[in-house]
């Protein structure tokens, strides 16, 4: 892949950008990123080797439209919803009351045309920079679908905003998706996104997904996600929160993919009193590898960052959790706590839970807990002594292990759905 | 009527022989008490009957209605109608008491005969009432953060819900105050009947004031050394294990 002559894509990118009617700055961002791909290194995810994964393999920009709707939705429900099948937005709905308050929920290209200034201020400017590493540059250059969610100042959206992203397993285009969420001062929003691969394919697919959440002063974002990308999809996923004064982001993430994934779930606590809570559950099975960096960086005084992540590994799967708590000098009174645990269900399963604490300030509280272990035989004996078959007892122990994280997710709907997805992944 | 028969049972833990030839036979409709000083193998007997993998049976048989169950795994034994109320039940976070019990009840039912939620809840309410357990305990995680007494009650609740053929209660009375002891005893007495047998393992006679045994066995040094009726337990209370051991010429190694 190092042999790729990135200049070959110059024209493709230009024509794609022009066809989408993108503003000049967007094209320039793409071209600057393209130029940088070659010189930038891959991001570093401790204890995960992924340099041979096809994460910067360029496929077509466009994919042919798939015939027929794949998503039947309850038309009586008029809650905020956006559905994309590959690159195509198939449903976009927003109640009139929210439109009147200035809420925007639309695909990223429409947003670039209709609200260029709002997008320009946030798109790869605050949370993620295009030139951080090879994969962020690749993303900026080749982004081919996405959405923009904008919540104006003082607006509180009661019902959850849902996004559903289908990925076609046999698609000839890359899946380079960008989700940009801007929550202005004092606003509140609950957002739920789901990624799902439809169908199966023998060829390797590349996915590069970037989610930026900008939470301005005193904004609250409850962010939930359920990821179910397919077996042959090689994914780089970056979800990053950028929190200003007294802002809060609650992340609840279900990492239930079937393919190989490297992910960065990060929160930058920029503002004083900002607060990020991250809860993640993950399951690796088959021969898949999932490597997850979860980072919270405390810049602001009295900022609080908590991470709890539990993962289960079956068969020959690999799962690595790196919990990174970084307190910058000057972030007095801040708090960084993390708990990472993995449970291995077979002798061939490989798991890691690495707490990494980097603390450059004295006046702070920080702590970590980590464990990588197997199912407790005493627990199994107890459950089986009541007549439960071994598989059933194991299923209960796993559900219990993940359930302690799931139980802490605020949205009941997400808890229920995640529990169902876990059952699927365990069967 | 079912029969549980233990023949010449020898059991070791990590090469140390604990049971040295236990013989015992019980029928449904009977309640047997197994008494004895600490360290004589009472709990080992219960673990071996249930099939705890940490205990190795080196000799002998355990027959349930004539079938040797030693080759069966713990869950298979449970589905055949054996139940062990444990001295130290595991705490398992993330699984509620109710969902665990429902899964356990369904484990021995056929695919098309699963218990309905309504039926289950009705039974659960009824049994929890009997044991004076607050409703919220059904939704708490399995034994997690339960006090000693709550754990014991919860074991008896499982007994009442699962309705096994034979139940072994391993020191269910230890650490219970008198009120809790009465409640737990009421639970066991509620199970009494022609289709149920219980083996009550205890160090103290106290529990037997509330659950009258039909047969009392005294274990010492890995064997049943004396069998009698409820009067035997009373005699023990009066004379202590010392008296019996002197009568039988067994040296007590305890303390």
From TrEMBL, chain A:
What is the protein's given name?
A: Fe-S cluster assembly protein SufD
Which organism is this protein's natural source? Vagococcus humatus
Q: Which GO terms describe its biological process?
A: iron-sulfur cluster assembly
Tell me the ranges covered by the SUF system FeS cluster assembly SufBD core domain, including all copies: 169-401
The SUF system FeS cluster assembly SufBD N-terminal domain, residue ranges: 90-161
> Which family is it part of?
Belongs to the iron-sulfur cluster assembly SufBD family.
What gene does this protein come from?
Answer: sufD
Q: Which InterPro entries match?
A: Fe-S_cluster_assembly_SufBD, SUF_FeS_clus_asmbl_SufBD_core, SUF_FeS_clus_asmbl_SufBD_sf, SUF_FeS_clus_asmbl_SufD, SufBD_N
Q: Which Pfam families match?
A: SUFBD_core (PF01458), SufBD_N (PF19295)
TrEMBL record, chain B:
Any GO MF annotation of the entry: ATP binding
Q: Which UniProt keywords apply?
A: ATP-binding, Nucleotide-binding
Q: Name one Pfam family in it.
A: ABC_tran
Where does the ABC transporter domain start and stop, copy by copy? Answer: 4-246
- InterPro entries of this UniProt entry? AAA+_ATPase, ABC_transporter-like_ATP-bd, ABC_transporter-like_CS, FeS-cluster_ATPase_SufC, P-loop_NTPase
The UniProt entry's sequence similarity note says:
Belongs to the ABC transporter superfamily. Ycf16 family.
- What is this protein identified as? Fe-S cluster assembly ATPase SufC
Gene responsible for this protein: sufC
